[in-house]
Please model this.
Amino acid sequence: MTVLVFDLGGTRMRAALVEGVRIVMQTEAPTPANDGIGPVIDGLCALARGMDGAGAAGLCAPGPLDVGRGLMLAPPTLRGWRDVPISAILSDRLGLPVRLENDANAAAMGEYAHGAGRGAGVLVFATVSTGIGGGIVVNGKLLRGRDGLAGEVGHMKIDSAGPECFCGRTGCFEALASGTALARRAGRDPRAVIADARAGDAAALAHLDAHGQLLGRGFSNLLHLFAPDVLVVGGGLSNAFDLLEPSIRAGIAENAMPACRDTPVVRAGLGEAAGLIGMAHLLKEKVHG
Ligand SMILES: [Zn+2]
Model:
């Protein structure tokens, strides 16, 4: 089946035509996040121009969402969006049924179905970039929880004396261990830190080492809660997974119960395509029951 899939981020939006698990066409543009709803929807439709032959469409979007009713409730990265019936609006414009899903959940499903966590009984996915998001797949199904709020791993409290979080509280995992937190501590963009570390810069390597240990601390909580068969790490910082891995393991060794310490922690296999592929998988599942 061919499906049309959108990924609506706070800075970038993408559209893709997916046949099975193959992306046959993909376009992207900056998200006019400060311009309100109309320009974003026009932009999404413009990206899909020429992507013909789809039988259904899906939108990966930042939470909080009401997946059942197709509503985006109040995404912090998009100004002026409140209770927007995005599925109905897009469905009307595209002439296709539209399914809405939380972006981290869609990526978790992509990694379960076709990525680094293929076939895992319990898969925990953590995406580490501007913030930290997560998705949990149990026996092939997303764990949604009440109001779809399961898997908000970024807001586990790690250190009550820690820095302020976007959510208004302090010491959340995201406030300590996201790419934004790394940038704040290192005084430069995470990409620059990673590049410097690759060039052997001692200060950059020390920042990544400390950062990996913080990630390991948060991941330990996830291992205790879910005992996953695999913990998959995606997002922009996973580009430095090879550099972070030893200190992530050290953080887990320090904070996790002995029985949990050998859980495989791996880099995401699908990279930026995880959400698009995961949504294609979810659409297929819906049509075939
Ligand atoms: Zn928070």
Observations:
- The radius of gyration is 19 Å.
- The domain at 118-269 is CATH 3.30.420.40 (Nucleotidyltransferase; domain 5).
- The pocket of zinc ion is lined by residues 155, 165, 167, 169, 172, 174 (CB under 6 Å).
